Amino acid sequence: MPANTLIKTSLSCAILTVAALPVPAAQAGAFDKGRKNISVVVGSGSAFRGAYTVVGVGIDYLIADGLQLGVDAQGWFGDSPKIYKISPQLSYVFSRKSELKPYAGGFYRKTYIENLQDLESAGFRVGAYFNNGNGYQMGLGYVYETYLNCESAIYSDCTTSYPEVVMSISL
User: Fold this and answer.
1) CA distances from 85 to 36, 47, 69, 72, 150 (A)
2) Are 39 and 168 in contact (CB under 8 A)?
3) Phi, psi of 12 (to 5 degrees)
4) Which of 27, 66, 153, 154 has an alpha carbon 20 to 30 Å from 160's alpha carbon atom?
């Protein structure tokens, strides 16, 4: 199956799975203090002249209204070398009175690459969540990342930017 077809199929399955989940009680807003959000990321990426399918999961805890502290993990599959990432992050979600909720945040990331030195990076993300009021959110955004220990002799670029699509459910 071609990579684009696999990615579209995976994304469609993830969206349908989230849509089929039972609706959580809407006692509090998705970004109110004390809430937990679980997110799923499905996408594509390229590295080492290869194409990858990226699958990830994350959990956030709201330490204050709108202020999320969380961690994400990703696996990059379909090519070589194998790549795994773990990323603690801090984000703030704005505009709590509407269905469109802009967000901004920063992160640190540790990347494990098979047979190469691990990489460390830091970056920021901006975007917006679309909240349906039932505890489910979909986010669209932009991410900028710079590698802190990048060797230009090995890597062609020590910075990267990319769009992100995030599906999240509040617990």
Assistant:
1) 21, 13, 17, 8, 15
2) yes
3) -60, -45
4) 66
